[in-house]
Amino acid sequence: MADIKHNTTSSNTPSITVYWLNESRADRIIFLLEELELPYVIEKFERGSDKLAPEELKNIHPLGKSPVIKDGDRVVAESGFIIDYLINKYGTNKNLKPTNEDDLFQYNYFLHYIEGSLMPILVTKYIFLLLQKQAPWIIKPVVNGICSKMDGLFIGPNIRTHLNFIEGELTKRKWLAGEQFSGADIQASFALEMLLKRSGVKEEEAPNLTRYITAMRERSAYKRAMEKVEKTSMAS
Ligand SMILES: N[C@@H](CCC(=O)N[C@@H](CS)C(=O)NCC(=O)O)C(=O)O
Question: For residues 92, 32, 176 and 212, what is the CA-based torsion angle, rounded to 10 degrees?
Fold first, then answer.
């Protein structure tokens, strides 16, 4: 574990610590904090060879998952909740949460949809890929057979349904919750990049999602966040 100081905090600025795990949803929170231009400190945790988070993360929150943050003495878990919490508390003048009813409806929906519906199928796909990669050679053909059957029957079609849904939503609006970029897009950011990648669909076949991901990557906060993530990954 390493402390990575990115900003110096003074007594009247927020005291936010992000408990960051490599290759995790914690990158969303770094992205948000860069959008909000808030000072924060990253504490780095690294996955073990089993790909799980280290036990010490349970000292921060009993579930031992990342992201989890501390804001002063308050521990906040769940990426969607952390995003909404930080925007409500510190983002009032940043336009990251819609004020009109229709856009706010979409904002809340997508904040829940990403973790409630999309991530479970993407994680299932990831687990099956990992299983195929790590299977001992002697049972590899059997494991590969089971995995490709599951992919054909269940995982692949579900991923395609999500892709079609998102592609359709993005024909109606520039961002997920209207014409204005919001916290819902931050929650969706890396998940939708993964959705496109895991669907195996070419960018031309999902032009709206491709346009959306390109616009996301062009944001200066996204670029700064990626630099912080890269720097944190490299730090010992
Ligand atoms: N629904 C939670 C999911 C948190 C979660 O499962 N995080 C993963 C990383 S993306 C994790 O900590 N995995 C390590 C482990 O399960 O040991 C959220 O959105 O914050």
Answer: 130
